[in-house]
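TA notes, week 10

Several of you asked for a full example with nothing omitted. So below is the full record: structure tokens for the whole chain, then the designed sequence directly under it. When grading your own attempts, check the secondary structure regions first.
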């Protein structure tokens, strides 16, 4: 990780520990806008390995459900499923701990020039339904860097901006190690994540500080295995070729 990025994140976390949360009441209070990660070219798409659990092969929602347990209202077309705005998030029926996750996604082509920053291609991948890997169109689209594509939302700034143009398929490969808790709920070992976006390393085995928060600071609470949740943020983001390997 670049030293400045590390120190920026460490400073934000240190402030959290020192002063608590009661003086931070807006989303903007935890946004970091500078420095913007460098832009780099992108890599290729892969296919599932032989021991993978295929979560979506382009045909049905057999492995998915809405948060209330009902069938997803998202749409399937041409081997991908797409967010149905305001239909709420979906999650896997199966729960996971340590995993290698492969997921391909596509933000919609930009049609409204007034939609910038967080309003372009916004969705998210919640590991164990708590820890958000941001999905966002950051192709020539500036936003706060701890909330851009490749970030652990509001926690870790990506090492690079490897975002493709809107309308093109993009790939996340994510290695996640779940947190370990003591019987009394104390965090013995935090969760860790490595993230590769379009073949480019953007998070290098970083410690997750707790559940990702839109307002306020991350917090841990004791939990076990949980599903992978995909966010309905009101944008027509599509997903395909989703598989996972349990580690």
């Amino acid at each position: 990780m670049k030293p400045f990025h590390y120190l920026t994140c460490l400073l934000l976390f240190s402030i959290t520990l020192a002063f608590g949360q009661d003086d931070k009441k807006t989303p903007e209070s935890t946004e970091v806008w500078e420095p913007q990660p460098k832009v780099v070219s992108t890599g290729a798409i892969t296919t599932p390995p032989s021991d993978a659990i295929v979560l979506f092969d382009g045909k049905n929602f057999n492995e998915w459900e809405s948060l209330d347990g009902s069938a997803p209202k998202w749409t399937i077309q041409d081997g991908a499923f797409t967010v149905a705005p305001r239909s709420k998030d979906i999650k896997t029926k199966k729960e996971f701990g340590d995993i290698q996750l492969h997921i391909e996604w596509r933000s919609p082509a930009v049609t409204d020039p007034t939609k910038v920053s967080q309003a372009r291609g916004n969705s998210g991948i919640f590991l164990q339904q708590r820890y958000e890997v941001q999905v966002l169109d950051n192709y020539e689209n500036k936003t706060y860097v701890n909330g851009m594509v490749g970030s652990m939302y509001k926690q870790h700034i990506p090492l690079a901006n490897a975002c493709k143009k809107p309308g093109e398929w993009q790939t996340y490969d994510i290695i996640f190690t779940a947190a370990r808790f003591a019987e009394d709920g104390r965090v013995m070992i935090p969760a860790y994540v490595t993230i590769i976006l379009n073949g480019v390393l953007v998070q290098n085995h970083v410690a997750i500080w707790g559940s990702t928060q839109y307002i306020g600071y991350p917090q841990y609470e004791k939990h076990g295995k949980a599903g992978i949740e995909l966010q309905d943020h009101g944008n027509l983001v599509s997903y395909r070729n989703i598989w996972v390997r349990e580690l």
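The mean pLDDT is 91. Use that as a sanity check on your answer.
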